[in-house]
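TfoX N-terminal domain-containing protein: structure tokens wanted.
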Amino acid sequence: MSYDQGLVVRVASALDSLGARGVRQKNVFGGRGFLVGKTTFVIVWGEGVLVKVPAAEYEAARAAPGVTPFQPDGTRPMGTWLVVSAESVADDPELQEWVARGLRTVR
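Answer:
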């Protein structure tokens, strides 16, 4: 699956705005992942993003419009990963909020 290069730039910009340091990028699951150390927390995937959210925030985050559990096998959700649609991250403040959630998971 290809990924949206412009969204990669926007995620990197959101991380800069959050003052995140030590974040690197890597190709993951056919998308472009953002990692701290060896732990991935956001993946630009297609036109949206996959975000690993803190367990305590999972149910509330999952209930947001345009958000579904990440189910790579089609049956079981993969941990606390969520698929966030392109429409849900179309505006920079919303994207930054999702990126911050992912970052909180690894910090």
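The two ends are 29 Å apart (CA to CA). Residues 5-106 form a domain with the Aspartate Aminotransferase, domain 1 fold (CATH 3.90.1150.30).

Cheers.
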